[in-house]
Write a structure and sequence with these properties.
Blueprint: H1 2-24, H2 31-41, E1 44-50, E2 60-66, E3 80-83, H3 88-95, E4 98-104, H4 110-114, E5 125-134, H5 137-150, E6 164-176, E7 183-185, H6 187-192
Antiparallel strand pairs: 1-2, 1-4, 3-6, 4-5, 5-6, 6-7
Length: about 200
C-alpha cells in the first residue's frame, strides 16, 4: 500500500513538473511568441548555406553553430554567432550570405519530458530565413556578452583564427508548433512579441 502511495505521489509530482514546464511555453496560437521562445531557449542551431565547395557546389549544406540571442529568459530574438573565415560554411557565406537557421525544442529537455518525437509538430521548431551579417561596435560588444555568457568555452578559442561576431538578419520566420501545417511570421511581428509573461508583484 505504501509503495502504491509513493508511486502515485511520484506520478502527481511528474504531472506538476510537466504542467509547470509547458505553462512557460506560449500558447500555439501566439505564433510569434512561440518563435521567440524557441530562439531564446536554444543554444545552437543548424544553418543551411548554398555550398561553394566541390563536389557539392550549389547544393544545400547544413552545419551546426552555437548561437545566443541573450540570456535565457531575456533574449532579443536576434541570433548571434561567433565565426571564423576558416570555417567551411562561413566560406559559403562570403560568396552568398543568404542562409536558413533552424532550431527546435528537441534541443532542450522539453520534448523528451512531454514524450514528443523531434519531428512531431508539438515539439515546436522554427526556421529563420535571411542572411548572415558581421556586426561591429556596440552590437559586437552585446553579441560577445550574449555568446560568452552561454558558451564560456568560446573565450579560450584560438585567437589566430580571427574570430568575428555576426548576426542572423531575419527576413521571414517559419513556425511549426501544432497540427495544421507551418505558419509564418514577419520580422516585425517576431521582434514585437514577448516570449515570456511578465509577472507583477
Amino acid at each position: 500500500m505504501e509503495t502504491m502511495k509513493t508511486m502515485l505521489a511520484a506520478v502527481c509530482l511528474l504531472g506538476l513538473l510537466s504542467c509547470s514546464c509547458s505553462s512557460r511555453i506560449p500558447p500555439h496560437q501566439e505564433v510569434a511568441r512561440v518563435a521567440r521562445f524557441v530562439a531564446n531557449q536554444c543554444d545552437w542551431a543548424s544553418m543551411a548555406t548554398i555550398s561553394t565547395h566541390d563536389p557539392v557546389q550549389g547544393d544545400p549544406f547544413s552545419n551546426s553553430f552555437s548561437i545566443s540571442d541573450g540570456p535565457v529568459g531575456d533574449g532579443t530574438g536576434e541570433p548571434y554567432m561567433y565565426l571564423t573565415h576558416m570555417e567551411i560554411s562561413v566560406q559559403d557565406l562570403q560568396v552568398n550570405p543568404r542562409a536558413s537557421l533552424s532550431m527546435s525544442l528537441a534541443q532542450t529537455d522539453y520534448c523528451r519530458q512531454q514524450g514528443f518525437d523531434p519531428q512531431s509538430p508539438l515539439c515546436a521548431h522554427v526556421i529563420l530565413s535571411g542572411s548572415v551579417l558581421e556586426v561591429n561596435g556596440t552590437e559586437a560588444a552585446f553579441a560577445k556578452k550574449a555568446l560568452f555568457s552561454r558558451h564560456p568555452e568560446m573565450i579560450d578559442w584560438p585567437s589566430d583564427h580571427n574570430w568575428f561576431f555576426a548576426k542572423f538578419n531575419i527576413t521571414k520566420v517559419w513556425v511549426l508548433d501544432y497540427f495544421g501545417g507551418v505558419k509564418t511570421v514577419t520580422p516585425d511581428e517576431y521582434f514585437k512579441a514577448t516570449p515570456y509573461k511578465k509577472h507583477h508583484h
